[in-house]
Structure formats: structure tokens, C-alpha cells
Amino acid sequence: MDRSENLSKFLQSDGRTVILPIDHGTAIPVPGMEDPVALIEEVSPVVDGFVVNLGLALAAADALDDKGLCLRTDVYKPRYGDNIDEGAYRIYGADEALTVGANAMMNMLYTHHSNEADITREAAELVGESLEVDVPVILEALPFGIGRPSDYTLENIGFTVRMAAELGSDIVKTAYPTGATSDEFKAIVDACFVPVIVLGGAAMGDDSALLGMVKNAMNAGAVGVAVGRNVWQHPQPKKIAAALHSIVHDEASVDSALKHLS
Fold it and tell me: How many beta carbons lie within 10 A of that of residue 252, not counting itself?
């Protein structure tokens, strides 16, 4: 496939996408994802693509066959005890993506992180590899690191999103800025010349809040979502995924989307 064909596995005919990341097994404990193949099969009807690590890409090849497949190329590590905070480090690249038939590759981009130089260099090298093989790159652009909502200010998110685009990312995945209005986030999206998708972060336990954030992001011009824990740690993964799908692809209201959970 060429680059546009690979991107079309995620961005549907309406230019929008619902992606389910299930790449957390190298970073954090994963209660709720004990059977990832069954999870993929359950939510596939309402999900456009998946983000997986290499091992799952191999183990779940059949279940992933007709969906957009994004290979996670790095390990992103939250700080743990006295461990050195490396942030994220790349372990795979274009060769592995081609081996599993991936339609995209995903890597972290932590701006302002103590290991920012290496993280940025590795992200840029991945983009360089992608140009040679036409496998697009989705940079997960987050200030300082993962799970730091107090650092996800408008200024920090705006800079990081633009930096990811400038480095050559085909799609930018980022957090919805903490406390931002839809209009404030729209200014960030409008200043980014490639599509933007928003992540879900830690499981909220609040369906209305999750769907409200997604609705605000879509109103701001985002093209979709990459929501993981808020789907596969949900008591009803397929139903919450269907609710997300209705907002992203059908422009449903939050109240209408919530009906999928009744």
C-alpha cells in the first residue's frame, strides 16, 4: 500500500477515526485486558483500528486482518520508584512494521522531558524510516510525559502538537488540554497542518465526562480518538466504543451517545 492507502485504513470515508490502543502491556498493569484477542473481536464492529505491540500483532493477526493496524515502536515508561525516568525509548521500526503488515507506526514525543533530546531524535528517525516505506507515523505528543494532566496546559499542548507536525508526523495524537474550552483547543488544531486525534487517558469511570471531552474535541476539529483504558476497562467495552463511534462518525450528541450504554 502507498501512504494514502495506509492512512485510509484508519481515516474512514468521512475522514474520521476511532482507534483502540491496546499497547499498555509494556508500560502499566493491564486489568481488563486479560484476553486481548477476544477484546479485538468484540469491539471490531465499532472500531476502525488498533494500536498494538509487536507480540500482539503476531498473536492476533487473524483478528486484526481487516482493521487498521498501528505498531507501537517504543516502550513508554511512567516513573516507578527510584528508576531513572527514560520517558520512552524506541525498540522497533519500519522493518517490524512491514513484517506484520502495519498501516502505521506510533511513537511517543515528550517535549520538555529530561530525556527530550533522545526522544525527539528517535521520533525523527522513525519519520525518516517511514518515508522510505510509505508506512505513516502517528506521534503521541505529550508535554513532559504520560499521565500528567497538570502539565497538559494549552500552551504546552499547543507547542507539542505543532512540534510533532513539524517533525513530519502524519497524524498527531495528544491529550485534550486540561480545563480547555472547545474554542481554545480549536486554535491548537487549526495551527496543526496534519490531522489531530485525542487520547482518553486513565479510566475516568464517568461515561458522560469521557463523551463530553470527545464531543468537545470533535467540535474543535479533531478527526477522531485513540481511547484505550476508557474502553477496555469499561464494564461494557463494546457499548462505550459504540458510543464513541456515534460521536466521531455520526456527530451524535453526548445524550444520544449515552443511549448506547442503556
Answer: 20
